[in-house]
Amino acid sequence: MGVKDTNRLAADIGGTFTDIVLDTAQGRFTAKVLTTVQAPENGVIDGVEVVLREAKLTAGQIDIFIHGTTLAANALIERKGAKTAFLTTEGFRDIIEMGFEQRFEHYDVFMDKPIPLVQRELRLPVKERISGSGKVLVALEEDQVRQSARQLKSQNIGAIAVGLMHAYAFPDHERRVRAILLEELPNVSVCISSDVCPEMREYERFSTTCANAYIRPLMSRYLYRLQTMLTDRKMDCPLFLMMSGGGLTTLENATKFPIRLVESGPAGGAILASQVALECGLESVLSFDMGGTTAKICLIENGKPERSRSFEVARMYRDLKGSGLPVRIPVIEMVEIGAGGGSIARVDDMGRITVGPDSAGSEPGPACYGLGGDNATVTDANLELGKLDSEHFAGGKLSLDRNKSKAVLARNVGEKLDLQDHWPAAGIAEIVEENMTNAARVHAIERGKVMGRHTMIAFGGGAPLHAGRLAQKLGLGKVVVPKGAGVGSAIGFLRTPISFEVVRSLNIDFRQFDSDRINKLLDEMSAEARVVVNDGVLTGQKLFETRFVELRYVGQGHELRISLPDGLLSKEDTVKLRAAYEKMYQDIYGLKIDDMDIQSVSWSVTVSTKEAQPNRADGSIDGTAPDPIGHRQVYDTGLGEFVDCPVYWRMDLEPGNEISGPAIITEDETSTIVPAEFSACINALKYIVMNNHAAEDSL
Amino acid sequence: MFASALGKIHQQVMWNRLIAVVEEQAQAILRTAFGSVVREAGDLSAGVYDLEGHMLAQAVTGTPGHVNTMARAVNHFLERFPIETMKPGDVFVTNDPWMGTGHLFDFVVVSPAYHQDKPVALFASTCHVIDVGGRGFTAEATSVFEEGVRVPHMKLRDQGILNEQLLGLLGANSRNPVEVKGDILSLVSSNDTGEMRLREMMEEFNLSSIESLANFIIDNSREAMIKAVKEIPNGVYPTDMELDGFEHPIIIKAEMTVSDDEVIVDYAGTSTASIYGINSPFCYTEAYTCFGLKCIVAPAVPNNHGSLEVFRIKAEEGSAVHPKDPSPVTARHVIGQMLPDIAFGCLAKAMKNRVPAESAGSIWVLPMANIGGGKTEVSNSSEFNVMNVAMGGIGARPGKDGLSVTAFPSGVGAIPIEVTETDSPLVFWRKEFAPDSGGPGTFRGGLGQVIEVGNTEDAPFTVSAATWDRIVNPPRGRGGGASGKPGKAYLVSGGDFSDKSVHTVPQGERFIVELPGGGGLGHPYQRESTLIQRDIEAGYLSPEGAKKDYGYDP
Question: Which residue, A114, B116, B396, B463, could crosslink B402 as a Cys pair with Cβ 3.0–4.6 Å?
Fold first, then answer.
């Protein structure tokens, strides 16, 4: 990663803003510019020029540039990818349209299923068939593939996906099809399922492969354009891309597997939270990232976020699971719910307040923005409850109109429930906080965690406003609000190692454990991952390997991810793996089943450079505090009443300070609410560390 | 406390919490269950009840068959074990089809919840276990006694001590003893989790009873449901439907009576029960009828005692929708899952432009095994016993075509072919849309599919047709729309599968199933020509079909 990496630059393109962070020996410089949707590289370049000017550096002095973007996700949501064809085993071309063959919303007879990325006319059959055990039942008919290629030539196809039955284990036919297609159509991008997603279950594998093919031309063009612009400006440092699984990869590899970039922003946030956890010496962490549209909750143990391989992009129906396209890629496991500052509050037929999942966005935005929004949003409620300062929102760039909030809160919620004054706002705050709490609780239970021992790390514009209350509801003792919360994802990029994960499906019952076969497989996977990582690493830089197996009881459908020991596996390791599996199973589900064999479902190998190991931050306090800059009446949801709060300016706070709740700490991008029964300390890194005295008492 | 504004808000928060608690219970069961029916189909449920047995919240899971069967089941327990006789740590169980959820495969587990040493609520959960002995998953039994082991209402845990004898007995009666025990224990632990969460909530909000919360939930839901019912004009709306049945066709007759605050559906005149196991016990009939009504009338109102008591279902004992003990009931969904279409049939007469055409309905289960079903009797054949499922088309919706190859009313999902092919020597040669199968209409019915299956080994195998219906009687259209294409099941060499029994696919042979398409809505000649053209280009419709059914000839 460069001989020296003093000047490190990161850019995160979001839906609304592009965040730039530059870390130098002199300190950190940040910029937030509007995302330039038509040519996102322009926004990046603008922002980079801003921070370079402020840091008094030239482009040539940058040592490393790390980039993450929502471009891939947006292309899928807005269906702006390439015209894509799909070649599949004859008899199966409708698999990607049939999907899971079920309705994700049982009571809505009008719901629609996700529309496949490749329309039926462009889904072409391939005469071939390999059985589940690898027997060639029908030989590949190469002439037919050639004919299909010629047929596609006239149709202006930008990309081709290939997905054949059982290719996850037996990829020969797919590879041959790709070779033929490249001979016939040398300028078209071809993706095969055994490369993109070598896992059993045809719908998910085909869906992932099609999504990768669909966004590949667009992403490659964008990434090479960006590289050219950087080179033109003499910025010739290595360029890395942030992946959804929380690792960095090279530009070349990113253009091969652009689907792996789809959740880069949220992954950056989770990496930041992991690093903050290490800095503060926190074992069990609940990361809480709340923006304008959604809240994301992720669990972090010992500085490592939970990972998973199943994800859904481009959900079409109120964020419901099943309404999007499934992709199997390494992702950081998190729940995302429609609860953000812009989330809209309503009253349903049962007289219940509902919040989200739809959002007023930035245009027209909450009613208080005064841009024509006439929905009551979470931000309107927060303003009414005194949590936001109408004059200093977004660093004073936007003044908020409290009367507009009052009007919509009364009309859309208060009148329907016979609630006066601030009560509609209090109701909205309670409900949105309860929704986030429930999501966190269910997520934790699914991962077999007990909530009370976790510390919350809150970032993103909305989280510090609600974090204290969430901690109360979840019984958490501590909340950390890191510095620079508003550009958290980009800061996370700077702390991410280079890595690549390779996965293979291989079902083996433990009673028939074949260690030679598995060791051979793991070796191949390791070699494959090392090729990718080595590409971006300087000679001599040490690489680390982590290996996992997904195990389940024979007959079950859900797997648990168990870490593998280093070195060659032997038959004896099955005993240890079984014990680890049973322990985790018992932690999560409260029982184990003694007589049942377990089996492997898939194996994964991740090769990465060393992760940054931050120093522990000193958290000692001297009990001093600066003078407040004012006072405000703020509604305390826990107490159910307004309380008088001193208001502190975050930049005034110094390490060692301690403030008793109730209080507000404001900064340009957000405000931290310190509820009654909490105190807030400032640690050596100037993070706010809030302690919940009520939770401490009950421990 | 609830008079205050804060109290009002807290009631809402607690209602949300109860729903989250039962969803959490359901998720836990889903992840620990054995057998693909639960895991792929979500054939499970969980609910919380007040001390009178009134259901307050229920998880929305894969199958509507538990909609109010669960609500009834808890009352049956309370009749036998009054709440004051229950003790902390007690857990009760049954799989009685008439007092549980409709067949022996579903175990219902009920636990009282205590707070400050007093009973405050009940939790119940259920899931479809993999095997209960008897003849297994087939419709061929002629009484419930052949269908497996029956557990009357009894204690599964007595003040914390598990009834190992009962579990041993169940294990001894099952082909999969370990899995059955695992499934039942996961129901117990999910109820325990529910109790723990409820206690936390009561502490947080300083409650000693949930009575006033229960009233709030029930009253508000009932009111919302009655408000929705008022949108339906008062009147009597009859309908009927013919199904293929097993040994004889099943005629379902129903009459819906709508008043200001109630909807009654009466199945008087429906065929007598079949001698085979396709009958729908009354609790299951109620569940699917209510589900159908709710989809159209008030889809957003949550299921609980208040919302469900607005619907009343009646049926004659001894009919196919109210079979008497000991009628066989294993494949109850063959009739039960057609009942939402009955509700739609009644509602279509009462409400214009709100109701879809008929759907393929009951999913086709494809249970396939080597000859001998487990122990091989043919020397060159592996032993296997696998299950896949197949969906047909959904009826056209007002303003929209029907969904192709999608389950309705069940929430069951597909089982990947690669999974079935890895667990057996079978090979699927085809799984594709069936062109021209969607019922013609202004809005077209969803397409069915064609599935072709053979064996990679040189050996015969069996397939059970227990659940394959709508071969003679296709899903009908509405408002001038035509029927979807009926289903079909046959060997490639020729020869239809004649009935719902277990059929043999000879060595070297393949079988084909064609799933029914959904019915059309509105006259096909009114369909926009751009949509017809689009259907032809995609191959959903053949040019000949377009000419014949839509009079379309560009």
Answer: B396
Q: What is the pLDDT of residues A437-448, one digit of tens each?
A: 988 987 887 776
Contact A593 B295 (CB under 8 A): no
What's the mean pLDDT when you consider all of chain B?
92
| Residue A63 contacts residue A6 (beta carbons within 8 Å) | yes
Residues of chain A with Cβ-Cβ distance to B228 below 8 Å are 349
| Closest chain B residue by Cα to residue A166 | B418
Given an 8 Å threshold on Cβ–Cβ distance, is A596 in contact with B179? yes
A357 phi and psi angles, rounded to 5 deg: -80, -5
Distance between CA atoms of A275 and A619, rounded to whole angstroms?
16
Is residue A391 less than 8 Å (CB to CB) from chain B? no
Q: Which of A94, A426, A427 is nearest residue B433 as measured by Cβ atoms?
A: A94
In tens, the pLDDT along A8-59 reads 999 998 766 788 999 999 888 988 787 787 888 999 999 999 999 999 999 9
- Contact criterion met (CB < 8 Å) for A595 and B178: yes
Give the model's pLDDT for residue B36.
Answer: 64
Q: Which of residues 645 through 664 in chain A touch B, CB cutoff 8 A? A: none
pLDDT digits (tens, 9 = 90+) for B431-475: 999 999 999 999 999 999 999 999 999 999 999 999 999 999 999
* pLDDT surpasses 70 at B374: no
Residues 6+ apart with CB under 8 A from A415: none
Chain B interface, best mutation among A88, A107, A135, A698, by max B CB count within 10 A = A107
CB contact under 8 A, A441 and B20: yes
Query: Could you say which architecture CATH assigns to the domain A499-609?
Result: 2-Layer Sandwich (3.30)
Task: Check if the beta carbon of residue B155 is closer than 8 Å to that of residue B163.
Answer: yes
Question: Are β-strands A663-666 and A641-649 bridged in parallel, bridged antiparallel, or unpaired?
Answer: parallel
Task: Measure CB to CB from residue A417 to each of B8, B13, B427 and give the nearest one.
Answer: B8
The distance of Cα B135 from the centroid of its chain, to the nearest Å, equals 21
Please provide the CATH number assigned to the domain covering A8-76+220-260.
3.30.420.40
What is the pLDDT, as a whole number, of residue B1?
Answer: 40
